[in-house]
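Quick note —
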Amino acid sequence: MLVDTPWAGPIAKVISGPDIMVDDGVFIDNVKNNYEILLSVDEQADNPEEFQPCDIHGSTRNLMFSSRLIDILNKQGVDNIQYFNANTIYEPTGEQYNYKIANVLGIISGLDMDKSDVILSRKGNVLEIEKMVLDEEKMQGHNIFRLQESIMHIVVHKTIKEAIEAEKLTGFMFVPDEEFEPGML
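Predicted structure written out below.
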């Protein structure tokens, strides 16, 4: 699952928030501060209001999920995401939106190393994935997780993808492992 917002955005800018990292799959305790987020549109856009907020924003380091996306994930039984409050303002209108910063918990070594084409370090760590083939047995029934071999990649089960598409949520790109290309994030 990749974030795929339009060229002009909106882009999520963290104005303030807790000093935490939510990109390593680890549960975080004792977070007291909310995030303050500004969704801004590129100044080159003729009509900024044409670029409405999506249901997902940010990089895989600071994923923001809309309440609609969170509802879908809950209905699909996803229980491995930790959420942090995010007071979010859409800059073109000043309107407040209901988003949360998402910490996808759990890391799974999901690559089929025999069928994938990877570049390894001398120590055997994956440096780059040229061809990705996932091993469904290794996924242990998880519907969403970070890929251990490339922690910035978030893998979702096709039922999650289909539910998101059925509800016409915006801002997503889903890439089947057979269509994966190096450098995709």
